[in-house]
Design goal:
Elements: H1 2-12, H2 24-40, E1 48-49, H3 56-61, E2 79-81, H4 86-98, E3 102-106, E4 123-127, E5 134-137, E6 142-146, H5 151-161, E7 165-166, H6 177-182, H7 190-193, E8 200-206, E9 212-213, H8 215-218, H9 221-224, E10 235-242, E11 244-245, E12 250-258, H10 263-272, H11 279-282, E13 287-297, E14 303-313, H12 317-327, E15 338-341, H13 343-350, E16 371-379, H14 388-398, E17 401-407, H15 411-414, E18 430-438, H16 443-459, H17 490-501, H18 505-515
Parallel strand pairs: 2-4, 3-4
Antiparallel strand pairs: 1-2, 5-6, 6-10, 7-11, 8-9, 8-10, 12-14, 12-15, 13-14, 13-17, 16-18, 17-18
Helix pairs in contact: 1-4, 2-4, 14-16
Length: about 525
């Protein structure tokens, strides 16, 4: 910190207001000043990549998972900083702010709209992939996880120490924990233990002043970053999490049903007779069953809708057979359908990786990029049986795609709505993700596939939340509304803010006004400071 403190007096003399658009000459001057500012911190140039560096594009593209944002049409950062120490993050924030440059912070690069590594205004990319230490304490059942670590690295670290502890987060191993946790990341343990943010004990955050805050010094900010996202408030350095207990042997399963095998009836009964909203009483919290209606090409080269019921049970298969035969007989679950394994092996199962693969596969930080688009919904009332054929027809028109219907209830219905910024708790039956992908290059292919996805989304409109139509922050979708980065407007922010955060949006904006009143941390869907006129 001594090097940092030496330049703070200089920085205080410089403007920190929202930056105007910069011409090329100004950009060159600003990036030179930014670079000199970092050098004043006595930080090595090894953590800084400029466009003239041969490694610039490989570093930039390494963690871009959506090919829509890899091409030359996507604006590139003026520089990439890859910190190896917390002080590098502090310096980047202060130097960018002093030189009227925005920053984008990337932990894993899975954000669906690429807002963590692209901007319509000149910016610095702060890539946290080198900040990925994990310190695990089995005795206290806790871990400190740096924001650049992936879920796979966290799960691997846990499995190397114990087979009776886990963490309730997502099922894609290459997701970075920084953004995933902050947005309310969920996984197949949510009915038993809630979301990732429901199991966060502490955090370290660099604020707009370049100071590092923790739970004891950040006040309401700790509430905000647990479901309100982190990019609007600062740079999350690390999380302290509470690990959860799991049996040595659990059961994973996938039961596939074509529509002509009664899948529509099964799906209807799952919603109607057992009401996913009430699974906390009708299904054990130890059971998570995801329904996945998807378009599949048959061996006869026909496209059909298949519904996969993919699940996990914290116990033995024979006990699950007995339970489901009473509670959900329509599924027709048999003992042969279940696969007993350790909890960490279920991570491989959910990621569609052969369970017999060495666990080191979880350390693969990168995934093959693809063209894709996603949307989301929340459902609070049962979708009528007569509506399902129309939804399946719209699904077929999309082509290669899937939807995920993720049940709530259980622990999700017990946690108070105001406990954290994540607002979608009791009263929700399930959350839906719609996901389409394609392989063709070009604007025409993108428009065609995105248009078909929009049509599917429109077909479901009568059966999901309304006024506003709510959405999940971690399934980022710019069609939920966008704001100007240079001159953000409160009215525009409310459009997407109330979809993502419901009644918590204004509280989040007031916290933003306290910790970042000049709105340094911002993007096209960030939370602006609450306006004084209100």
């Amino acid at each position: 910190m001594s090097n940092l403190l030496l330049i703070i007096p200089l920085l205080l003399l410089l403007s920190t207001s929202a930056p105007p658009s910069l011409g090329l000459a100004h950009q060159s001057t600003s990036i030179s000043a930014f670079r000199q500012c970092l050098q004043n911190h006595n930080h090595s140039d090894a953590v800084l990549y400029l466009p003239t560096n041969s490694s610039f594009l490989p570093v930039l593209n390494a963690y871009i998972h959506n090919k829509r944002f890899i091409g030359p049409a996507t604006a590139k950062p003026l520089a990439i900083v890859t910190p190896t120490h917390e002080s590098h993050v502090q310096a980047t924030v202060l130097c960018a702010k002093a030189n009227n440059l925005q920053i984008r912070t990337r932990s894993g690069g899975h954000d669906y709209e690429g807002l963590s590594y692209r901007s319509p205004s000149p910016f610095i990319l702060l890539d946290l992939n080198n900040l990925r230490r994990i310190e695990l304490d089995v005795e206290t059942e806790t871990a400190w996880v740096e924001a650049g670590a992936t879920l796979g690295e966290l799960y691997y670290a846990i499995a190397n120490k114990t087979n009776t502890l886990a963490f309730p987060a997502g099922v894609c191993p290459s997701i970075g924990v920084g953004g995933h946790f902050a947005g309310g990341g969920y996984g197949n343990l949510l009915r038993k233990y809630g979301l990732s943010v429901d199991n966060v004990l502490d955090a370290r955050v660099v604020d707009a002043r370049g100071e590092i805050l923790n739970r004891s010094t950040m006040g309401d900010l700790f509430w905000a970053i647990r479901g309100g996202g982190g990019a609007s408030f600062g740079v999350i350095l690390s999380w302290k999490v509470k690990l959860v207990r799991v049996p040595e042997v659990v059961t994973a399963f996938q039961v596939d049903r074509w529509l002509d095998q009664g899948a529509s009836d099964i799906f209807y009964r799952l919603c109607h007779y057992y009401r996913w909203q009430q699974v906390s009483t009708n299904l054990s919290k130890d059971i998570f069953i995801r329904a996945m209606p998807q378009v599949v090409t048959t061996p006869e080269n026909k496209t059909k809708v298949m519904i996969s019921f993919v699940g996990e049970y914290l116990g033995r298969t024979k006990d699950l057979v007995s339970y489901l035969s009473r509670s959900f007989p329509e599924l027709g679950f048999r003992e042969v359908d279940g696969k007993e394994m350790s909890w960490v092996e279920t991570v491989l199962f959910w990621a569609m990786i052969p369970v017999n693969k060495p666990l080191e596969v979880l350390l693969n930080r990168k995934s093959e990029p693809s063209y894709f688009k996603s949307k989301s919904d929340y459902v609070t009332e049962i979708i009528p049986r007569e509506a399902l054929p129309g939804i399946w027809d719209a699904l077929l028109k999309v082509g290669p795609c899937f939807t995920q219907w993720n049940p709530y209830g259980g622990r999700m219905a017990e946690i108070d709505t105001d406990e954290a910024a994540y607002a979608h708790r009791a009263g929700y039956l399930f959350k839906v993700q719609y996901y389409v992908w394609w392989v063709e290059d070009g604007e025409e292919a993108e428009a065609r596939h995105v248009g078909a996805l929009d049509a599917l989304h429109e077909a479901v409109t009568p059966y999901v939340t309304k006024e506003p139509r709510e959405a999940y922050l971690n399934y980022r979708d710019l069609e939920n509304g966008v704001n100007s980065v240079e001159k953000p407007e409160w009215s525009k922010a409310k459009v997407y803010g109330e979809k993502y955060f419901k009644g918590h949006f204004e509280r989040l904006a007031k916290i933003k006004a306290e910790f970042d009143p000049e709105n340094f941390f911002r993007d096209q869907q960030s939370i602006p400071p609450f306006p004084h006129s209100h």
